[in-house]
Amino acid sequence: MSTVRKELVSMGRELVDAGLSPGRSGNLSIRTGNTIIMTPTNVSLGSLSVNALSIVSLDGTHLDGPRPSKEVPLHLAMYRRDPAAQSVVHVHSENATAASCVEPWSAHHAILPATPYLLMKVGQVPLIPYFAPGDPAQADAILRFDLTFSAALLANHGSIAAFPTLAQAQTAVTEIEEAARTALLIRGQNFRLLTGEQIVELTERNGTPWTPGVPSQADVATFVRGAARGPLGVADWDQASTGR
Ligand SMILES: [Zn+2]
After folding, report:
1. What is the spatial distance between Cα 225 and Cα 146, in angstroms, rounded to a whole number?
2. pLDDT in tens, 127-173
């Protein structure tokens, strides 16, 4: 248990040092059997203490330590979705949060597939509808989302990733941040995306989740203009599907 505690504390520091977790935002957890060990509420991830971490049962009961982050239900939902997930990282990093405020071009992936690493390390990153932080309905929305994914953008809020190791979850939020930054930078430019074949090759080779579909010209055109509109349905973005 003490190794797990040390791992959480040092990861908190790394995320803050990398500029991914501003202020007192963000939270981390590791699953240990039937409990999770989690960062407390209202604490900077850069000043965690191994002796001040929260222990919570898988049904959300606070068992020991300081009061946990109010985003416990979010973490528990990610663990419930994927039994292989043993670590969850949630951050309000700048570009991921900005991207979470933009309507997604696709129902299965909110970030334009312009560069390989997000697809290689994470796969598709859907946008989960907005709920106030700590609202248990957010967890319900995650559990109801009928799509395989290891990480998501929470609308108007930030990113979340659930992986077998804390290092993988850290990598995921880092790649999301970088890919979101790229997507926002190229918005309004005459950009080139990866092709459907390239996306399929990358995700198949790395075993990351990807539902067939690449942006249609109409989707990209709308995204470039930045027109406000509702999320697309599957039929819209599937026009250019590779049919995998
Ligand atoms: Zn949050």
Report:
1. 29
2. 999 999 889 899 999 999 989 999 999 999 999 999 999 999 999 99
**Ligand 1 mean position, distance from CA 73 (Å):** 11
Annotated catalytic residue: which of 14, 94, 117, 130? 117
- Centre of ligand 1 from the C-alpha of residue 105, in Å: 23
Q: Is 79 a catalytic residue?
A: no
Average pLDDT (195-221) is 83
26 Cα–ligand 1 center, Å? 6
- Kindly state the tokens that stand for 120: 């290689």
Nearest to residue 156, comparing CAs of 109, 103, 233, 193?
103
For the entire predicted model, the pTM comes to: 0.89
- Quote the number of domains for the chain: 1
Query: For residue 165, how far is its CA from the centre of ligand 1 (angstroms)?
Result: 20
Question: Which is higher by pLDDT, 91 or 223?
Answer: 91
Task: Report how far ligand 1's centroid is from the alpha carbon of 138 (Å).
Answer: 11
Which amino acid, residue 199? Answer: I
C-alpha distances out from residue 67 to 10, 52, 140, 151, 168, Å: 20, 9, 22, 25, 26
**Residue 76 sits in a domain of what CATH number?**
3.40.225.10
Residue labelled with tokens 């039937």: 34
Options 71, 79, 175, 177, the catalytic residue: 71
Instruction: Please state, in angstroms and rounded to a whole number, the distance separating the CA atoms of residues 113 and 124.
Output: 9
What's the 128 CA to ligand 1 centre distance in angstroms? 13
- Give the separation between CA 55 and CA 217, rounded to whole angstroms: 48
Q: Is 205 within a domain? A: yes
Its domain, for residue 197, covers: 2-238
